[in-house]
Amino acid sequence: MYKKILIANRGEIALRIIRTCREMGIRTVAVYSEADKDSLHVKFADEAVCIGPAQSAKSYLEIKNIMAAAEITNAEAIHPGYGFLSENASFAEICTESGIKFIGPTAEQITKMGDKVTAKDTMKAAGVPVVPGSDGLVKNVAVGKKMANKIGYPVMIKATAGGGGKGMRIVEAEEDFEKNFESAQQEARASFGNDGIYIEKFIVQPRHIEIQIAGDQKGNVCHLSERDCSVQRRHQKLIEECPSPFVDEKLRKKMGDVAIKAAKYINFEGMGTVEFLVDKDKNFYFMEMNTRIQVEHPVTEEVIGVDLIQEQIKLAAGESITQSRYFPDGRHAIECRINAENPVLNFQPSPGEITSWHTPKGYGVRVDTHAHSLYRVPPYYDSMIAKVIVRAKSRKEAIKRMKRALNEFVVEGIHTTIPLHLAILENEEFASGSYDTGIMNRFDFDVLQSSSDAE
């Protein structure tokens, strides 16, 4: 087992990894930008190294600075967390060449699954069902229109290097194709430095279901149940739950078998997810594979009782998987992502100093966060400041517990999405479990405005 791990990330995920490492007796190295010098992950790590200014491109995405920090601290392994360099094949390869273990898949595995077009082609070859769409990248608008007409509207235009909803457009009719194609290309170029575009059939009213998988270095793969990530705004997840209220035992087995098949096909190593779109008739289609730990991994942990970060580190150190499947055991977990945004003002970012901070506690409540009273939320990074996770014996009880927890959460000095989450929990579609990825398109935001006016 490793004696020292460098965490190439920030915020709550860096702190989350540090806590597990401490329980495992592993020393940790935090890296931080000048904007994060007072962050909790810096304070709780055994060592900390400043790697550059606030801008991500000059700090958390600057590979040479991170590698220098690993070398001067004699770190044996690097945990990339999620985001930033977690799915960067070049970074994984540089780590390997430097004799430092990248806690995740190999560069080759990332390459096969990190680019969405390549991943789709790989899954086709593996016999995994995929959403009908273009074969490879679409060269220009004319080719795209021809392909969209062949597939049939509505279609989804997607950036091959995309993530977080960037470079994605839904097109309902041919006359709207050109402007959406060009805007998706521009956004992809600005966000990822890659304007590659492909087209897929848009599945009407789907669920977004992901299967948590783990693979060891001996070719063994297991799945650890599913998560329902269908509550999204602009393709960014807001609430996740495990198990999905939509998935029955038959569908869980079918999707789990396909996810294992997909992972085995690329000899996947580490923790990841195979993500599917599932239509109302429970037909499912491969969407993408994330070759890293996910933001929403705690809901799986709370249901199956396994520390996924600890398992991820053990797999990287060469330990073997001991069982092929984990299933929900009569428990239900829900996670709400709390962002420093004002949902009343079109989710305007709300950086600044937190003047008062009280996190919910009590039975079945967990809060993963790096924020605290007097913490200054920087404007340079993702706006998520906390994740509230609850578990209970049933979905109905979990919803009640989450309402209690969110009402107990006090954040002053900045705006947060807590009022939005409380409103979603009261929403009839969500409460019944019969929602789909379009739930937020139908959401009545006037409820939030009325609440804000009342205050």
Question: What is the strand and helix layout of this fold?
Answer:
Elements: E1 4-7, H1 11-23, E2 27-33, H2 40-44, E3 47-52, H3 63-72, E4 77-79, H4 89-97, E5 101-102, H5 107-114, H6 116-125, H7 141-151, E6 155-159, E7 168-171, H8 177-192, E8 197-201, E9 207-215, E10 221-233, E11 236-242, H9 249-265, E12 270-278, E13 284-290, H10 297-304, H11 308-316, E14 332-339, E15 341-342, E16 348-349, E17 352-353, E18 356-358, E19 365-369, E20 376-377, E21 384-392, H12 395-408, E22 410-412, H13 418-426, H14 428-432, H15 446-454
Parallel strand pairs: 1-2, 1-4, 2-3, 4-5
Antiparallel strand pairs: 6-7, 6-8, 9-10, 9-12, 10-11, 11-14, 12-13, 14-21, 15-16, 17-20, 18-22, 19-21
Helix pairs in contact: 4-5, 5-6, 12-13
